[in-house]
Amino acid sequence: MINLQTAVVLFAYNRPKHFEATLTSALAELRGKEYKWYVFIDGPNFSSDDSSMLEILSISKRLLKEEEFECNKQPINIGLKSSIILGVTEVFKRHEQAIILEDDLEVRPGFGEFFVNAFEKYKDEKIVVQISAYSHVSTGSDSAYSLPFINSWGWGTWKDRWDEFVSLTLNTDLTSDLTALDLYLFDYNNSYSFSRILKKQIKGKVSSWAILFYLHTFKFQKIAVYPPESLVVNKGFDGSGTHGSLGLNSLQKRNLLTSVNRIVLPPIESLTLSSETRIKVETALKKMSRKARAIKYIKGLLYELYGSSRSHFN
């Protein structure tokens, strides 16, 4: 019998092999839970995308039972931001909590147990807006921790938190009163240029659901809960993705979960970050920021040398 409390939501575009790896790893962790599965496939940018989309649908039908999943295929390409916002909002019309994965992620042992337990532990703690599968650092402990910003590499949330985000932030300008100090804090003490992404979002130069969800988290003083080590690995740094950045793969390897010990979920008042872990997170974000800037510089050189469209490399 399908458990209507929880949904698993997968977003795919034109990478059937990546999608199959994502779905296979997620099923290994979650199939016994009898969850409802949703597959959202964005529409084609090019005619060559059609065959990939059909292959993704075929994989879904092969690996999932007909009664346990629904597939939603867009007739045109609407982009990741719209896909996520529309898809998650639609799912929350029928479910109270959801796990969300994109098609470049593979989950690791312990993923399912962590989400089941965290959903139950923090369901009434309204300050928690997200459960994250990814960890920026390996903390060296078995305890989950919190950060004042969200993550997009495998995550979960509840209907009431998502609905609040949609109603309070999605169509509201929350940036007009941000001070210089606010932007410094928004960048996690100047560790990563989240504010630059936000400014590009405002100007329409990028289209990011995650930066808006983070803005909501920041403005309303919410938190996300992270595992002590990563429960997910991003396989999208092979040049196949639209949003992935080549060269960032090495930064996530050191944070992968190496054991399957039960993750301790502290009470909300004990989720505070130790000074040692905070410094680790800031250092990791700074390394990621430097790597991202270097990649952007290389993309610019390629554009100047070969006249290629920048969008080809994004």
List keywords for this structure.
8-stranded mixed beta sheet; alpha/beta; disordered C terminus; 314 residues; two-stranded antiparallel sheet; 42% helix; Spore Coat Polysaccharide Biosynthesis Protein SpsA, Chain A
Could you walk me through the main structural features you see in this protein, from its secondary elements to its overall organization?
The chain contains 10 helices and 10 strands. The protein has 314 residues and is an alpha/beta fold. The protein has a single domain (3-312), classed as Alpha-Beta Complex (Spore Coat Polysaccharide Biosynthesis Protein SpsA, Chain A). Helix 1 runs parallel beside helix 2 (49-63) and helix 5 (159-170) crosses helix 8. The protein is globular and about 50 Å long. The protein starts with a strand and ends in an 8-residue tail after the last helix.
